[in-house]
Design a protein that fits this description.
about 270 residues; alpha+beta; 2 domains; 5-stranded mixed sheet; 3-stranded antiparallel sheet; 6 helices; about 25% strand; elongated; binds zinc ion
Length: about 270
């Protein structure tokens, strides 16, 4: 065998071994990278980042779940209003859902809270123990919804108003109140009780709601509340832009509009 042949064979052997080692190294690295990629969603995204986008969506998804449960308007049977906005004086109001059927006018507030919620009908604030271990206090939603129900009651004079706070995640067994309902029981609750309205009365109340529908988006509604509050803070009449002046009433002082009698806006306090 010539020296040249030996050199060629040795070179070929080295190249083959090199290629084999390179292939093994490549495979090992690739497998390691794949394992890391599989682990990363669990390991790298902190809890709060996982939960925040969900929390942002939760409200909307909750309302959609309730909307789906209620169903649509069926003339003569039930009339449904979702994200209903209307003005009571200068203030706009937004109500998640109103259902008019033969059992009454249901004013629904949707709550999409996870974890555990505790409180009573009378408490100002409820305790919300979140799934991430944090605790927050929230305004008693029964009281919040009672205000909505009262305003709707004024709009629909004489209507039997039934306020309900719907817990989309059904996590309200520790709250003892007939003004609370888990989503799983909403359908039954909407179809329960005596017949209080005939089809003509239902249609009449639905017509009033339609006529007063302000068709505001949530952003427009919130902007209106901010505008009214800013006006009051600056002594400006939120109804006409006039000046608010302190007047003497029979029993108490109050703020009235400088454009009275053209504008009859009054307010007890400006804060
Ligand atoms: Zn005014």
């Amino acid at each position: 065998m010539s020296i040249l042949k030996i050199i060629l064979i040795v070179t070929a052997a080295i190249l083959c071994a090199g290629a084999l080692i390179a292939t093994i190294v490549y495979c090992v690295l690739r497998s390691a990278r794949k394992n890391r990629a599989n682990e990363s969603p669990k390991r790298n995204i902190p809890d709060e980042r996982k939960e925040n986008p969900a929390a942002n969506l939760a409200g909307k998804e909750g309302e959609q779940a309730v909307q789906w449960c209620i169903g649509k308007t069926v003339v003569g049977k039930q009339y449904v209003f979702n994200n209903y906005t209307f003005f009571a004086g200068v203030y706009s109001n937004e109500i998640d859902h109103i259902v008019v059927n033969k059992h009454g006018v249901f004013v629904l507030e949707t709550k999409t809270l996870g974890g555990t919620v505790t409180g009573t009908e009378e408490d100002e604030f409820w305790q919300h123990d979140k799934t991430n271990g944090q605790t927050e206090m929230l305004t008693n939603p029964i009281k919040q919804n009672a205000t909505h129900a009262e305003i709707v009651g004024k709009l629909l004079d004489g209507a039997p108003i039934i306020p309900l706070v719907v817990f989309v995640k059904n996590n309200c067994p520790q709250i003892n109140s007939d003004k609370i309902v888990p989503l799983s029981d909403l359908s039954r609750k909407l179809n329960y009780g005596n017949d209080l309205l005939d089809s003509a009365q239902m249609a009449q109340f639905a017509k009033i709601l339609e006529e007063n529908d302000a068709h505001l988006t949530t952003e427009q509604h919130l902007a209106n509340i901010r505008r009214v509050n800013d006006c009051l803070k600056n002594g400006i009449c939120p109804a006409c832009g006039g000046k608010l002046v302190l007047r003497q009433g029979k029993t108490d002082d109050y703020y009235g509009c400088s454009n009275y009698p053209k504008c009859t806006f009054t307010r007890k306090n400006l804060d």
